[in-house]
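Record 1 of the preview.
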Amino acid sequence: MPHFIEILEPHYQELLKSCERRKISVNLDVQDLTVNIHDVASVEDFLDSEIKRALKNCTAGDKITLAEAANAHTIKISVKNSGRATLTEAEKKELRSYGYEVRARFGYDTVVSILIDR
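->
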């Protein structure tokens, strides 16, 4: 069973390259890089789609944060961006249909999270 760092690292390296060219800041807010991930495919799909969405929404001076927080039962992985565009109601509904948590309001950061069993 892979650790979170093994899944995150290639995504993070690509994100750094893209953001460096576009003058977008990248932050990590991770509690435990060694937490075991049982559902690798879901995490991979989530990171692929939400990092792309964050890059699409951001311009020079914005910030993208990759986050992970865990408790005894679950692991929450989030992609947060400070882009000026927010998600439409249809986009929010679609993301929630995948089981994602969504926090997106005009003028505030957009945060999309996946909650997986530990």
